[in-house]
Automatic annotation (TrEMBL):
This is glucose-6-phosphate 1-epimerase. It catalyses: alpha-D-glucose 6-phosphate = beta-D-glucose 6-phosphate. It comes from Cynara cardunculus var. scolymus. One of its GO terms (biological process) is carbohydrate metabolic process. Gene3D superfamilies: 2.70.98.10. It is an enzyme of class 5 (isomerase). Pfam families: Aldose_epim. Its EC number is 5.1.3.15. GO terms for molecular function: carbohydrate binding; glucose-6-phosphate 1-epimerase activity. Belongs to the glucose-6-phosphate 1-epimerase family.
Length: 296
């Protein structure tokens, strides 16, 4: 059911009987909490997150749509994350294997006002679901509802902020040897070296044509986050580090030590939809004991 969250913004809380939970705000269709069965928070929320529209919420899983970052004419990351979504009364069908999942279906339909900033009509359906084992799945369906016969192209990302014990103890597996665009070096293309990623300074990279599965190993917490994705070929990896963190007003100065953004995305090749066509994208997040996932 819908309840009041911070500053009276409405949210939906999903619970699984063994104790895991998810919270998603109607503002931005924004997941702000994902807890495991022990009540441990798995997503990072800034200590200075402002739940004050039209500012985006700092942390959780911002939906970047219809534009990732500044790769276009819109404000950074587009406008879906700063719009009010509603519960979808005509949700997509529930797959047979989803019987034990709890979920909420949200929808955002472009408005006349949106058309002035982005001249394309669309409908974005977002299903947030929590599995019986505590896995969090986001499924997106974007349809081109234009009546002007025009196709449109968009870029997008699930801008996921993972909570980590200490960024300098984290390894990311699955992106080795891939090409990436480095946002800190004029978005030029480079090739990653051959072993797991580690972090000792600001990083802002878009890895291209990545595998379905990416792992984030938190040695101290003996926990591995696994991202499994469909329809999202790229992965953005971001940590602002100390200097950049200080320049972001809704980011605590020390927060960078306890977060890492690993974002399933479609950036290099925008997704084009003809009128009536629908794109489907999905990410499934798991948090498993590290022993399970020390290898590939
Ligand atoms: O995640 C990569 C990125 O595009 C960074 O360049 C940084 O801008 C970050 O997103 C946060 O953007 P935001 O608009 O949420 O402050």
């Amino acid at each position: 059911e819908i309840i009041d969250g911070v500053n009276g913004l409405q949210k939906v809380v999903l619970h699984q009987h063994h104790g895991s939970s998810v919270e998603v705000y109607l503002y931005g269709g924004h997941v702000t909490s994902w807890k495991n069965e022990h009540g441990e928070e798995l997503l990072f929320m800034s200590s200075k997150a402002a739940f004050k529209p039209p500012k985006p919420i700092r942390g959780g899983i911002p939906i970047c749509f219809p534009q990732f970052s500044n790769v276009g004419s819109l404000d950074l990351h587009g406008f879906a994350r700063i719009r009010f979504w509603s519960v979808d009364n005509e949700p997509p069908p529930i797959p047979a294997n989803a019987i034990n999942r709890v979920f909420v279906d949200l929808i955002y339909k472009s408005t006349e006002e949106d058309l002035t900033t982005w001249p394309h009509s669309f409908e974005y359906k977002l299903r947030v679901s929590l599995g019986p084992g505590g896995d969090l799945m986001l499924t997106s369906r974007v349809r081109n509802t234009s009546t002007d016969g025009k196709p449109f192209a968009f870029t997008t990302a699930y801008h996921t902020y993972f909570s980590v014990s200490d960024i300098s103890e984290i390894r990311v597996e699955g992106l080795e040897t891939l090409d990436y665009l480095d946002n800190l070096q004029k978005r030029e293309r480079f090739t990653e070296q051959g072993d797991a990623l580690t972090f000792e300074s600001e990083v802002d990279k878009v890895y291209l044509s990545t595998p379905t599965k990416i792992a984030i190993l938190d040695h101290e917490k003996k926990r591995t986050f696994v991202i499994r994705k469909d329809g999202l070929p790229d992965v953005v990896v971001w940590n602002p580090w100390d200097k950049k963190a200080k320049s972001i007003p809704d980011f605590g100065d020390e927060d960078y030590k306890h977060m890492l953004c690993v974002e399933a995305a479609a950036v290099e090749k925008p997704i084009t939809l003809k009128p009536g066509e629908e794109w489907k994208g999905r990410q499934e997040l798991l948090a498993v004991p590290s022993s399970y996932c020390s290898g590939k």
